[in-house]
User: Fold these one by one.
Assistant:
Number 1:
Amino acid sequence: MNIKDIFLFTIHAVTSNRIRTILMLVAMSIGVGSVVILTSIGEGARHYVTDEFSALGTNLIIVLPGRTETAGNQAGMLFGKTPRDLTVYDADSIHRSPYIKQIAPISVGSATISYKQRSREGPVIGSSASLLDIRHWEMAQGKFLPVMDYDRGSPVCVIGAETKRELFANENPLGKWLRIGDRRFRVIGVIASEGRSVGVDVEKLVIVPVASAIAIFDNPSLFRIMVESKNRDMVPSAIKDVERIIRERHQGKDDVTLITQDAVLGTFDKIFTALTFTVAGIGAISLFVAGILIMNVMLVTVSQRTSEIGLLKAIGASKQQITILFMGEAALLSLIGALAGIGFGILVTQTAEIFFPKMTLVAPWWALVAAMATAITTGILFGLLPARRAARLDPVTALSRR
Amino acid sequence: MIRLEKVERIFQVGDQQVTALNKVDLNIEAGEYISIMGPSGSGKSTLLNILGLLDRPNRGQYLLDGKDVTSLTDDEQAFTRQQKIGFVFQFFHLIPRLTAEANIELPMILAGIPEQERKDRIHTVLKAIGLENRADHRPDQLSGGQLQRIAIARATIMQPKVLLADEPTGNLDQHSGGEIIQLLEDLNSKGLTLIIVTHDMNIGKRARRRIRIVDGQISADETGVA
Ligand SMILES: Nc1ncnc2c1ncn2[C@@H]1O[C@H](COP(=O)(O)OP(=O)(O)OP(=O)(O)O)[C@@H](O)[C@H]1O
Ligand SMILES: [Mg+2]
């Protein structure tokens, strides 16, 4: 028997029993399809998040108050000392470093924002003029915050598109006064809504000068300081400088945490890759279920085709040949099912992309290879038992059944 | 060519032993034409299955072409069947999804005969059985007599030495049964050893050698014109 003969024989067997074939194909393609879909979502999420972060620029260093250490002594914590606040003066002093291009202190809080009768509860950010460039935002209307000292407030604000819609409807917001908490601010600009930004929905924002935010929330402590180095190569030097400057200002204590964009990116990448593997594993379970189904269907097939097996033996088929023929059927069905599953998965993800244009849903190549390999291996493994049963049938008994 | 010595076949049914063949001695020369008759349950099919290496005796010896074949492995027996033995069954045993041609081709595929030679042989045999215009028909599109002719073509396509037919006309009407016997006799006249199990006196009579089995034993073995 050569491959072509085996293939023709199995193709005939497979196509002559439509219901059985469709059943097995559906089971296999659901299994493979789910691997494709789940890994596409995992990869899509990974790309989405890493793209978001990369969009921020890789020169970015984020300074957080408090030291997060995985090892080392935390004596300060033990004695009940809370970490020292990060203040606008800290931010200001960082400007000393020659490696740094720009800085944006960030203070965050939530407040009631109102205009005439309309009001909404929303996030308020206090920052500086540099934030626009650091975040790569664009203005839809007006201007961003003016350049001024961090400790000087000013009754001006910049709003996001949603805030504009809710408070001003169709009115032009520029020059209008709105209330944040119990203070009044004049709207000087609207941020373009297409800007994507990690962790904050730009559309919902209201941005005021950092000193004004500190006054609104009555909290001098900054949420973080965003520092942008002059270029990527200067990131390590900039980090050293920032650490040194803050240590000097904080009586020799290293009580801030510095995060670089690269590190964040790497971490997210790892998390999402692990996630994708996990969902691929979950998908593989359905392949296993498909394998069980194939085994059962093939067992039924063997008992239905008993007399055929007897005949094959009578005309001289060896055990090995019969095993190959029946395993070939399972393998062929798995292969076609796997291909159909990949097609089905791609169809679903492509359709989903139409509805979620921000996500790119493409299954990673390893998932396609693994799903195919698992499907075919499952088919062969689960086809083995029925095929061996066929090969061991007693020819006389097999032939006595019509 | 075939030599059975004290062959016994005993079936275990529950705690009861059924002796289907009881110390059967039998010698068959190449080219013989033998009919085997006897009452139902006397052991005719059992004998044919043992001759065809589909079944193994519990005791006794079976020499085929001077070689002891009872001690062969399953696969060695399968190979011997492929090369030396053809079967014709009462219920044809054609594979329903395959065409007449593909059914005839099957033994040659298993034997690994090249495609071109397979096609040539099929062409020749279809002509010989007068079904060259039925090559593409599936079994459900053929009559009983045609099915049995296809089955005979399949049984002889590997040019075996012996053809074993278990009630080959049992499922056919008088006319097509006669045609099948004629076909088998033609093959025998070309040198094929032919062994037919039958219940039909008229068919049994036509064989040069007539064996009668009763209760698993050969009770009569006559040669010559009946
Ligand atoms: N697989 C088996 N298990 C148990 N007993 C069997 C088996 N095969 C045959 N027998 C018994 O062996 C005896 C001979 O059976 P066999 O089939 O050879 O008879 P037969 O002469 O071919 O009968 P028939 O003319 O009805 O076909 C019978 O008593 C039968 O019941
Ligand atoms: Mg019988």
Note: Chain A touches chain B at residues 1-2, 5, 9, 12-13, 16, 307-308, 310-321, 395-396, 399, 402 (CB under 8 Å).
Number 2:
Amino acid sequence: MSTDQQDEQGEDDTLVNVADGVDHQVAMVMDLNKCIGCQTCTIACKNLWTEDGGSEYMYWNNVETKPGEGYPRGWEDSGGGWESSEHSDRSPGEIPDEEDYGRAWEFNHEEIMYEGSDEPLRPRDGAEWGPNWDEDQGAGEYPNSYYFYLPRICNHCTHPSCVEACPRSALYKRQEDGIVLVDQDRCRGYRYCVEGCPYKKVYYNTVSKKSEKCIFCYPRIEGEGPEGETFAPACAEECPPQLRLVGFLDDEEGPIHKLVNEYEVALPLHPEFRTQPNVYYIPPFAPGQHTEGGETVDIDRIPRQYLRELFGDGVDEALDTIDAHRQRVRQGGDSELMELLQDKNPAKQYRLEVFDDE
Amino acid sequence: MPASGPSWPRRSVLRGWSTMPDHRRTITLTAVLAGLIVVSTVAAPMVSARPAHEIPVSEVSTADLAEPDADGWAEVPASDVPLSSAPSSVPNADDTSIETVDVQAARTDQRLYVRLEWQDATRDTNASTPRQFADAVAVQFPVNTSSRPPIAMGGPDNRVNVWYWSGSTGTQELLAGGAGSTTPFQNPTVQANASHSGTGGNATWTVVYSRQLDAPSENRTDLRTDGDLDVAFAVWNGSNGERSGQKAVSEWHYYPFSGGPQGPPYETLLWTLAGIAIVAVVGVTSFGIYRTRGAE
Ligand code: SF4
Ligand code: SF4
């Protein structure tokens, strides 16, 4: 599928590995050290894309507490992805159960507001699970308990197993920017994509009977907004601490390329699924452990092994690199990396127009 | 196929053998054998059950056939069509649960009616949670009735029409030119009525499809064809997660629209040729024996 032009680019202009037949690859970096778990991103996304019938239970963007079951419950053990880095054999996956996503509960508003009931406000029927049911629970024992928030969207993977899973080629990776979409005209609701995505980021619309997923807000990045302006995805723009960088992985002047490929401090989630995600995370730091007496000691609060399970073995070096640059700045030195991780200049944070002239 | 010719008249032949002079005996034997062979070759296709892949179509003048339990179906013969898992690359493709479907067909001068009945203990008509799949059934015809398309959803140059009914989405009329290319027609011209009856292991689905004989548009099968009409069937059991290529399918069968009940022309032709060949061989052999003996 690749054209001559892309082949030339692949060889001459860039070392960045984008998928075959894709000109450029959108990407996002999220700094987990800044997430306050406010769910503004989740709601921004929901208001825009998943308010209609059949999509109530979907959160294309969700923020879950780690360690924790996540959304849908147990997604990390639900299969999907590739057997090897050859990307020839997919591993089978499972469709999550309705209860694992969590149903929309009904509350006793009626009784309390209009019928004078003294009951506390609560869900009507047995509410036993839902997104963020285990919010802030985390792991570890006082005084060394720990948790952090993990915002998740579709990773618009370079080797999307959701695309490969569809027998009708209803899912595809857009040539211009690598965004993975579901063609609603081709989809017949078979849900092989739902089970085939190891991140469980394709959802089945129970009314339209077709699959849906994060579209990386492509109408916004295409400038389809009211003023014809380009906007980053809503989850990024609405985030109070502005922890998301949005741009192209193969934009070598941009911060994403530097963080991912030069400094190697932004890492994909669960690289062992081998779909090669294009959403990257700056791994979380936490204060050292405390003794019973309240003294800080030099022992990782978040077990390093747990972070390796999430972000792969690259996490050790990523944390060391960030640490070294921090020390440098503390001692009065300069660090481009520290500036990138703190930069509030929106022109740099969202670089979506760099390839517009092509 | 069951043995079908008259039983072997062993005794009379033996008696003839013992009482006649040699050359007369040989001639008589030859004549009897030849006669038997001719009788059996001609009789076989006429007396036997119809050819294995033929599904009879009753010609009826008026139709009370649209509903699964319509009285008219009592008069229409049924064929047991065996099903097996379709070859497919989707996960669990070989895990299908429906092994046979009963097929009836009837034709008025306006419409073709096809009634399908199969056992399925669970009535799965809901696909409104992520894990639910609906029961479904499909009938497949070639768009161009003069040649037989690849059985798996046809091919790019040899497309198929599919009449599809599912418990959750109702009836669809589809066009396909190979696996994964299925496209629904905008305005379906196929009607389907379905019912699930009985309980437990004996519960069955019955679905009746009907469509006018004339092709309603391009890319739709002309059912007024004079030739035999190829037809194939597929069934999905929703509660077993069956959908897409995970389905129980039949081989190609045919409706014998080309004429009488004796099967398609090529089969009769083959039988006739085989009969003539056998008679000729026996004749030549007997003549040889006769000559040899005469020379003694
Ligand atoms: S995260 Fe899942 S849905 Fe998104 S591109 Fe990757 S495999 Fe497909
Ligand atoms: S809006 Fe930002 S800070 Fe709030 S939960 Fe989402 S990513 Fe975290």
Note: The mean pLDDT of chain B is 83.
